[in-house]
Amino acid sequence: MAKAFDLYQHVTDSIIASIESGTPAWRKPWTGDKGGAPFPLRSNGEPYSGINVLMLWLAADAKGYRSPFWFTYRQAQEAGGQVRKGETCATVVKYGTFEREDEATGEDRRIPYLKSYSVFNAEQIEGLAAEYYGTPAEAARDLGTEADPALDAFFAATGAEIRTSDDPRAYYDPAADHIHMPPIATFRDAAGYYGTLAHEACLLSPS
User: Fold this and answer.
1) Domain containing residue 105
2) Which end of the chain is more exposed for a tag (fewer CB within 10 A), N or C?
3) What is the pLDDT of residues 73-113, one digit of tens each?
4) Is residue 113 part of a domain?
5) pTM for the structure as a whole
């Protein structure tokens, strides 16, 4: 028997993964990004609601999707597109009720149900009309934010390996056991940089 879909565990796991991957998008204190997380829309332009908004926001932020549109596999084909081979779906849910006769009383009862199904962002699909695709990612900007020597010395003393590149993401890589940070100049202030670095340092493997 297939294992039942646990909505609550799925949402919890998604939120934890978002937090562990770095500072969440809605608190990101630096410029430049790998993508965005616009308000999610169904293929017909109808907005999602409820927990699906959070689930698709997290999925879009994790993958850097800037398109708001999400399709089922069939909807993509009906729109003239094709999901690229190897793409991973996101999960959304539908809550509803149906009527069933109560054997004891003979009266109709409303029975709630929760159904999950798979969707793909427009950026995972080839051949769609141009209006379905997102806008370019925000470019990183040099804001002139300068490092604090005392705080740099503090983090150096922890023994953490801190790497910096133009990749606009802050994260801890557990496999390589290092922290990656965007350049401090792209942060709006030094507090945002060192606060983000401290968050990532909390995820370091114990020595």
Assistant:
1) 35-136
2) N
3) 999 999 999 999 999 999 998 887 778 877 777 778 888 87
4) yes
5) 0.54
